[in-house]
Amino acid sequence: MTETKYVYLDYAATTPMDPRVIEEINKHFKESYGNTSSLHSIGQKAGQLLEKSRKTIADLINADRQDIIFTSSGTEADNIAITGVALQNMDRGNHVITSAIEHHAVENPCKQWDKRGLEVTFLPVDKYGLISVDDLENAISDQTILISIMFANNEIGTIEPIKEIGAIAKENDIIFHTDAVQAFGKIPIDVEEMNIDLLSASAHKIYGPKGIGLLYMKNKGIKKGIGKYIRPIMWGGGHEKDMRPSTVAVPLIAGFAKTVEIAKEEMDVEAKRQVKLRDRIINWVLENIDDTSLNGHPTQRLPNNVNISFKYIEGESIVLDLDIDGIGVSTGSACSSKSLEPSHVLLAIGLRPEEAHGSMRATIGRFTTEDEIDYFLKKLPHVIERLRKMSPLKKGVKYMFDDASETDQKDI
Ligand code: PLP
């Protein structure tokens, strides 16, 4: 019996590790086990590897090595950014601006603080998922201490106007955090040029290990005119610049550095290759399967993201049926895809709950081949046809959104 390879198209949820990264980590699990706080040579050797890795990673985003702290995940970095800034700056102001389409790792800390000491503005987005910089400027008050807008959305791939947002934040002396978990290592980021004060990233989205992330803090968390603008949210030993205690996971960080090294070398070529595959899927589906529409921006989107709504069926059924065919896609964000609530991102771009429920996200990556896309596009129409045949919501039957004016999603 020949074993068919599973076609994994869920790289936004997490990525398989690059074998070069596995090799690097394995080496350091053996060799670099020391505690970076120890005075002996084993500890010092681990400390040197930590600083070398920090430098490699910082260079990718044009940051100073000293301004990177390692965390256990993107979620932890987001929580330190939101809560650390809120706690440190409450005497200066109580207002935070974020967007309606943030990942739960930003949305939920903001909600925790909303009305418990902070007022949070969730900026709306347009049909492509873009915030308006005019809305942002209008939302700013003398109480605003933080703007947190994601670099690129995890569900629909839309890339926000980060440079403009950074300029507005700078002009108004407001701290600017961006959740770059989906963008880091995939598209160019320059924290200086974009005036980013705080940035979160995670290794497992770019072929690195799970369990390691980072927070970039400009100028070690000190800002002219404001002074210290962030404080820790956990207390323990003095690791990671007194911002994030706990023995440092040096082998994972060395693996993170390896992923970054590879990303630096391959980003340009790989992004172009993925855009081709991405657009091939999008164009083929929109042309060949009726009642479909693209979610997210047609061009200002991550090279690896496809998100399409299929009328009359449920995204969950598409995921389960494709899985039987050996193809892994997702619906909504992987972290919340077991929830029956429609995605807050798809609702925010104006989809009705029925349309949001019929969405499928396919995200490609370094190991995705043309052959895999051939196989996916061969199987997908059959799955859609089969599900539509079984659906009580099928075409011709009066359906909640049949009468409503069509969304103009398709003319993009
Ligand atoms: N932010 C975004 C935009 C994400 O896509 C994710 C993960 O899906 C996270 C934060 C959380 O990252 P982690 O899984 O490293 O906690």
What do you see in this structure?
- By secondary structure, the chain is of the alpha/beta class.
- Helices cover 38% and strands 14% of the residues.
- It contains eleven helices and 14 strands.
- It has helices at residues 19-31, 41-60, 74-89, 104-113, 133-139, 162-171, 250-288, 315-324, 344-348, 353-357, 370-390; strands at 7-8, 68-71, 95-99, 119-123, 144-148, 175-179, 198-202, 213-217, 222-223, 227-228, 292-294, 305-310, 327-328, 359-363.
- The strands form four sheets. It has a seven-stranded mixed sheet, sandwiched between helices.
- Strand 5 (144-148), helix 6 and strand 6 form a beta-alpha-beta unit.
- The radius of gyration is 22 Å and the shape is globular.
- The structure holds pyridoxal-5'-phosphate.
- Pyridoxal-5'-phosphate binds at residues 73-75, 78, 103, 105, 150, 154, 179, 181-182, 202, 204, 213, 335.
Proportion of residues in extended strands: 5-15%
The low-confidence runs, each spanning 5 or more residues with pLDDT under 50, are: 333-337, 403-412
User: Any ligands, ions or cofactors bound here, and which?
Assistant: pyridoxal-5'-phosphate
Structural class: alpha/beta
Overall pLDDT metric:
93
